[in-house]
Design goal:
alpha+beta; elongated; Pdz3 Domain; seven-stranded antiparallel beta sheet; Thrombin, subunit H; six-stranded antiparallel beta barrel; 29 strands
């Protein structure tokens, strides 16, 4: 890499004065010469660095007793050969009767089953998992990750002084990857920590404390590298990114600010090798507080439910709808049981804000609705028919399992012959659901936008279509209105999506 250095150039006062008289100084402006005022000049950024390195010892002494190692006993399903339990050897499941290994495992089974070869029931087998956690109350509530305790049958907390405590699972939430444990029996008052009210700025010092590789209480330091990171499709919350060393076993452990407050719960790392490379992610305290409160008072997290399928708004879609910029969450489908449908939300609407808070994309909408109280009212700002409207929605409770349904696309009627839509380079065929894409030309507009054989075009420009003539009519109307793109509602095997296709002049 080449680094260019800037050199300071000095000019003698006499030459500068002469040049000013002539009005030929480089960079001089007319207003400067007329008024005689010096030209405005930006100063370089100057930051006062601390006189000495930061000392973390006081923070560590205060918080370390509140951090625990979490040991989880999980039951694993054993593999069996005939009547004998052989854990961890699925490759030997279907060996011939006279195979040497089969005879070996039969003898192995004889020894362990005390000669009872007719035993049908497999003996349960267990594995040990480890993670981290921290006390949030003096009576023994401990926060950790859902993936640490998932499928666990026994839980043991190991404190910083080596004390082991049995614990019970109060509740666990997969969506946020958070879980809450409670010490089973103890008269002891535990040292605990609290969640921070605000997130420190990017660049602020933080400490990660946990149980990496089962080593016990370990402290690492770093800074907040970024916030608002999206790292998982399953989890719609955003994460704090830190560069403090976090490894396997740190999961569920706290990240502290220099006040000893928990600003996040370590939950994931980015690593090609599985070890620390300086990119770790923590669940923000503001998210954890709400989830943990729900788990503590009922063992289950309840989230608001709008009941829509959504997609991000692309530049093409924004242009086709007359939106000034590509933002918001576009509704691709809903049903009559959903709160959104009952409130008047329609397919093709773009949700721009919730209670006045801007929605930039689908994840932001999911966060807004998910964090809202079930059975509460919210106001949606919606873009429809080239203008904003407001809709009040009474939210439901997010179902345990949101069922997905849809037609299999079968058509018992005799299909019409395919018709060519040269505007976009595809052939279409009428069906009860719309126009089925029967072919897509390579290097065409349709291919570029991801359309493929079997997709079904349900609407064009907001109007339902049943023939190529309908499509051509909407294309012509869009061109007459000065549109550069046309919006199509497409049904695919993966669900409903909207696509903006550029129009030819």
């Amino acid at each position: 890499m080449t680094i260019s250095k800037l050199k300071h150039v000095s000019v003698k006062t006499t030459l500068l004065a002469s040049a000013l008289c002539l009005g030929v100084v480089a960079g001089a402006t007319v207003p400067t010469l007329i008024t005689g005022q010096p030209a405005a000049r930006a100063d370089a950024v100057e930051v006062t660095a601390p006189a000495q390195p930061v000392d973390f010892t006081n923070v560590v002494k205060a918080v370390k007793p509140a951090v625990v190692s979490v040991q989880v006993k999980t039951e694993i399903e054993p593999q069996t050969i005939q009547n004998f339990t052989i854990p961890g050897f699925p490759e030997f499941r279907d060996l011939p009767e006279d195979h040497p290994f089969n005879r070996f495992f039969r003898r192995f089974g004889d020894q362990n089953d005390q000669g009872d070869q007719n035993q049908k029931k497999a003996v349960p087998h267990y594995a040990q998992a480890q993670g981290s956690g921290f006390f949030i109350s003096e009576d023994g509530y401990v926060v950790t990750n859902h993936h640490v305790v998932d499928k666990g049958v026994e839980f043991v907390l190991v404190m910083d002084d080596g004390t082991k405590l049995d614990a019970d699972l109060v509740g666990s939430d997969e969506k946020s990857d958070l879980a809450l444990l409670k010490v089973r029996k103890s008269d002891r008052k535990f040292q605990y920590v609290k969640f921070a009210d605000t997130l420190p700025a990017v660049g602020s010092w933080v400490l990660a404390v946990g149980n990496p590789f089962g080593l016990g209480g370990t402290v690492t330091a770093g800074i907040i590298s970024a916030d608002g990171r999206d790292i998982s499709a399953k989890n719609y919350e955003s994460f704090i990114q830190i560069d403090a060393a976090v490894n396997k076993g740190n999961s569920g452990g706290p990240t502290f600010n220099l006040k000893g407050e928990v600003i996040g719960i370590n939950t994931a790392i980015y690593s090609p090798s599985g070890g620390n490379v300086g990119i770790a992610f923590a669940i923000p305290a503001e998210v954890a507080k709400d989830v943990i409160n729900d788990l503590q008072h009922g063992g289950k997290v309840q989230r608001g439910w709008l009941g829509v399928h959504i997609q991000n708004v692309t530049d093409d879609i924004a242009d086709s709808l007359g939106l000034a910029e590509a933002k918001g969450a576009m509704v691709t489908s809903t049903d009559e049981t959903a709160p959104a449908f009952k409130a008047g939300v329609q397919v093709g609407d773009v949700i721009l804000a919730v209670d006045g808070d801007e929605v930039k994309n689908t994840r932001e909408l999911a966060r807004h609705i998910g964090r809202a109280d079930p059975n509460s009212d919210v106001e949606l700002t919606i873009w429809r028919d080239s203008k904003e409207i407001k809709l009040a929605v009474h939210l439901g409770t997010y179902p345990e399992e949101v069922a997905s349904s849809g037609s299999d696309g079968s058509d018992t009627q005799q299909p019409a012959a395919p018709a060519d839509l040269s505007e976009f380079g595809m052939t279409l065929q009428s069906s009860d659901e719309g126009l089925v894409v029967t072919g897509v030309q390579a290097d065409s507009v349709a291919a570029d936008k991801g359309l493929s054989r079997g997709d079904i075009i349900q609407s064009v420009g907001g109007k339902q279509v049943t023939s190529v003539a309908d499509v051509q009519k909407e294309i012509a109307a869009a061109k007459d209105n000065g549109r550069k793109t046309i919006l199509m509602r497409i049904k695919t095997d993966a669900g409903i999506r909207f696509v903006g296709l550029p129009l030819k002049k």
